Amino acid sequence: MLFPHPNINMVGFMPDNLSRDDSYPESLDPESLDPESLDQPLGVGWVVVQAILFVFYFVALIAGEPMKDFAGLIYLRSAGLLLALVGSGVSLWSALEHRFRMSPFPRPVDGARLIESGPYRFVRHPMYSGIIAFTIGAGLAYANLAAAITGIMFFIFFMAKTGREEELLVVAVPGYRSYRSAVPWRLIPKVV
User: Fold this and answer.
1) Which neighbouring-strand residues pair with 15?
2) Residue 149 belongs to some domain of the structure
3) Backbone angle region of 118, left / alpha / beta, with phi > 0 → left and psi within -120 to 50 → alpha
4) Where are the alpha helices (DSSP H) in the chain?
5) What is the pLDDT of residues 23-61, one digit of tens each?
6) Domains of the chain: total
7) Which CATH number do you get for residue 160?
8) What is the value of pTM for the model shown?
9) 7 inside domain
10) What mean pLDDT value characterizes the chain?
11) Per-residue pLDDT, 160
């Protein structure tokens, strides 16, 4: 299955009938799911789409035309460089918190544990936050609008992918449901 669930509202990024107070529609109720539901495919489609986005990003970064010089370009490029560095740092910090035991697939790795420290105190998917910040920031640092826009496409993609991941995390990782209530932001603190 390429996209997460029939109840996902791709415009609003939240399941149509799932609120932040963690109430579940019957079809997403973790108690109604059995652990064997995690024996489904890894979610290769998600990783293929993610890889295609990375290819588009690097092609845009390499082959895209830089923006024409304008008065504030140096500030835009500086802000982009700072955003890319912050994104790299957040991704590395996330990987360290996981002890590099992670997977690009939506299905949690065997024996996955709940991580509530480091960047996971602020958002539930900081690795993706870092990738988004890096791709947008590097696009701006190179004054490459096509690459920056592709970085925004990563945001849209990761909002959808995290919806699927969270369905599985609630079942596979003890305490995830409470953690999700305590940390209501998926990717950007105080935003979404």
Assistant:
1) 8
2) yes
3) left
4) 44-63, 73-97, 126-141, 145-172, 176-182
5) 333 344 445 455 555 455 678 899 999 999 999 999 999
6) 1
7) 1.20.120.1630
8) 0.77
9) no
10) 81
11) 94
